[in-house]
Design goal:
Length: about 375
């Protein structure tokens, strides 16, 4: 019988995934709260980790899965006679799948007023160890760390009876990327040096963009792991097409420039270049002044303001349609003449580490 080890802080989608594995004949082994969830709320038969290891969890839950009977079952190579002989000698049955997601360190550490001891307790030790072990042994033990993968894994198992090597390799890449980003966030939290010897950075994809610098190129936007806010946080898209790389470059330039002012200010940017900036007594007047600076270049602009806007902002601009929406909890307006409206930034707290994000596009191979 195939076996699956499950240890998840985030239970999103776990009910259907665990039930699907059980229906496919998997024997389920789970730790702590995951075992409670699967037994009491899902109604599945589960072997608890402490029953497998013969050792109860200790140190307030800090030690649950750090045991040879767990890690040997994850790391054993089924095509090695010596590995199989070791499992037989110690009466250890291997795992075919490991489903783990980690304590939410970045979420907790990033909260306002969080105490150091609270953040430290969110540093997962056993989870990354199991995930990395399964990823290393991906040919024999599939690592699963993203709830978004649950359904596709069940579908492939139902259709083929097993996971292909390509799927296993993709799952391993996701697992190592997850643990790398996790460790990078922890390292940055501990680091007090302005210029550390090793700068650990990790980014998580927020959105695939409509296109890159040119329409035939691809691009995506990534947010820095652990950043409290980033370029697209607190941004709501009202309607219109998805954003492109140039849209985000313009939005970033506009917001960075806007941060230099405290009085009512309007910044108009086109292709990352300011073509109108104005300060005035009211945001409506600031908008009109900024637009008057260069109304020709403002065609297809990104417009950012630092006060709540009224629906009448921009009425004097002869080229339409455009968008103007009130932002009661902050400020922001982005307009596109004769093009669909795009989102406007809302007020946000001052953030560290620049814009908290990164744009990525494929390297151009057609240029020498």
């Amino acid at each position: 019988m195939r076996r699956a080890l499950i240890s998840c802080y985030d239970k999103t989608g776990l009910q259907d995934f665990a039930r699907g594995l059980a229906e496919l004949g998997f024997e389920l082994v789970a730790s702590g709260g995951t075992a409670d969830f699967l037994e009491r709320e899902v109604g599945l038969d589960v072997e608890r980790v402490e029953e497998l290891t013969g050792v109860a969890e200790m140190l307030g839950g800090r030690v649950k899965t750090l045991h040879p009977r767990i890690h040997a079952a994850i790391l054993a190579r089924r095509d090695r006679d010596d590995d199989l002989a070791t499992l037989d000698e110690h009466e250890i049955r291997p795992f075919d799948l490991v489903c783990v997601n980690l304590y939410p360190f970045s979420e907790v550490a990033g909260r306002y007023g969080v105490r150091e001891e609270e953040a430290v307790e969110m540093i997962d030790v056993g989870g990354p160890s199991m995930l990395r072990g399964a990823a290393k042994n991906f040919a024999h033990c599939a690592p699963v760390c993203r709830p978004s993968r649950y359904q596709s894994i069940l579908d492939e198992l139902r259709e083929s009876g097993e996971l292909s090597l390509d799927t296993r390799r993709a799952l391993a890449a996701e697992a190592f990327a997850t643990t790398a980003a996790y460790e990078a966030a922890i390292a940055r939290w501990f680091d007090v040096e302005t210029f550390p010897d090793t700068l650990a950075l990790a980014f998580t994809k927020v959105a695939d963009l409509r296109y890159g610098e040119n329409p035939h190129q691809r691009a995506a936007y990534y947010a820095e792991e652990g950043a409290r806010v980033h370029l697209l946080s607190r941004v709501e898209q009202l309607h219109g097409k998805e954003l492109s790389l140039i849209n985000l470059l313009d939005l970033s330039a506009a917001r960075l420039l806007l941060r230099e002012f405290t009085l009512p200010t309007c910044v108009i940017v086109k292709h990352a270049n300011p073509c109108g900036v104005a300060v005035a007594a009211t945001i409506e007047e600031a908008y009109e002044r900024a637009l008057a600076s260069d109304p020709v270049s403002a065609f297809g602009m990104v417009c950012a303001v630092n006060r709540p806007v009224s629906a009448g902002v921009g009425e004097a601009h002869p080229a339409r349609p455009r968008a103007a929406r009130p932002a009661p909890d902050g400020a922001g307006l982005q307009t596109c003449d004769r093009r669909p409206a795009r989102p406007g930034p809302r007020r946000r707290r001052r953030r560290p580490r620049g814009n908290g994000g990164r744009l990525r596009r494929p390297r151009r191979k057609d240029l020498g």
